[in-house]
Amino acid sequence: MAGPEMYMLLVMAAGAAVGLMLYALLMLASPAQQNQQQQQQQQQQQQQGELSAKARREVRKKQHLADAAAAAAASGEDATQQQQQQQQQQYHEAGTVPAGNFPTPRWLTTDLGQPLRPGYAPPPDPAWRLRLVCGARCVSIGLAELEALGEVGETAAGARVVAADWHCVTGWSKLGLAFRGVPLAAVLRLLLRQRGEKKGGEEEEKEEEEEQEPEWDTLFQSCADGYTAPISRADLGSAAFLALRDGATGALLSARHGGPRIVVPHLWGWKSAKWLESVELLPAYRPGFWERIMCHPRGRVYDETSGALLQERWAPCYGGRPGWATALANAWHHALGPGAYHAVLAYGGRAVGVLAGWRGLLRRGRRPHQPRAAHGDDKKTN
Fold first, then answer.
1. pTM, whole model, 2 decimals?
2. CA 235 to CA 312: how far, in whole Å?
């Protein structure tokens, strides 16, 4: 079995063990509830017999609709394409859970359970600063300076708020989250338009005028717990922003949710790194933690321009093989309920963190602009 698949198997095994223990405790503590569930199952079986005729009618109805769509396509009207466009429009207007995911009532927290760098603390700690690096250019910026760049989003209750759906590759989605933040483009502009120290003279001024923004391909995030995550420049459209506050309360994003973090709504949640310390603009792609294990380099849920659902969960070299992990996560959720499922995620993530530290996959103690070691050491999810 390949290394990445072994990682995922160990994650699910650890989570499954915890889930089984919780399930056993629940069943032993509430026999009455178990009897009630058995009665409900019997009633459902009886109802299924009564509804079988109705189900057959629904099947025939769907078959008629499919035949009609095929006839419309044969007559020159591409009904399938029209249906896809309607689904894409509905996704943007109302929010949709991608295939393989299920909605959750709250924003879950999952990570690898690794300790943060000593001395690190997110805002409101005044010592927190975000480092921006591109080649020889380097900028350090604090919370007050970031908020002075201007808010992004639609005005609501006197503040500009961004509404975004959050999709986790492990199988859950939280629709309708609200954030307050600043445009990511404005943050990067501080770095890209930085100029060198003036030395005077006409030649120096001319060189400064002709200076162009550096070329870069990948935005690389490094965090206080060793986690890393890349985002392709092609995916950093106008919707990308740096989330600073909760959109509903106006409070700063808590340390539990990772403090200030980059959010790109059309990407999977692992691309939004918690406990962010530095952002480096690289000339070429560099894989992060999950990309080095088994996840897709770009990690798009849907195409930002066309709205087409892409489902870029796993690296192309794995095909659909890791999809069993998402299916198993869904099975745990339906069998054990939300509480046990959350425990599976939490303990499974910690198991991965231990393995990752053992294999040297966490990027610790190295500034982003320092030379990269020959065998790098790159954690996190949502």
1. 0.70
2. 13
Q: Tell me whether residue 102 is in a domain.
A: yes
Domain count, the chain: 1
Measured distance CA(265)–CA(299) in Å, rounded: 11
The CA dihedral of 100, 102, 108, 112, to the nearest 10 degrees, is: -20
Q: What are phi and psi of 323, to 5 degrees?
A: -60, -20
Instruction: Give one DSSP letter per residue of 273-308, joined into a string.
Output: -SSEEEEEEESS----HHHHHTB-SS-BSB-TTT--
3-state DSSP assignment of residue 161:
strand
The pLDDT of residue 46: 56
Which secondary structure element, helix H or strand E, spans residue 159, and what is its range? strand 159-167
Q: DSSP character for 318?
A: G
Residue 242 and residue 240: Cα distance in Å, rounded? 7
Q: Say how far apart CA 68 and CA 86 lie, in whole Å.
A: 18
Q: Is the peptide bond before 214 cis (omega within 30 degrees of 0)?
A: no
d(CA 142, CA 65): 58
Token pair for residue 208? 């400064």
Q: Which amino acid is at 29?
A: A
Task: Find the domain containing 318 and state its range.
Answer: 81-193+213-382
CB count, 10 Å around CB of 334? 10
Q: What is the pLDDT of residues 166-185, one digit of tens each?
A: 999 888 899 999 999 999 99
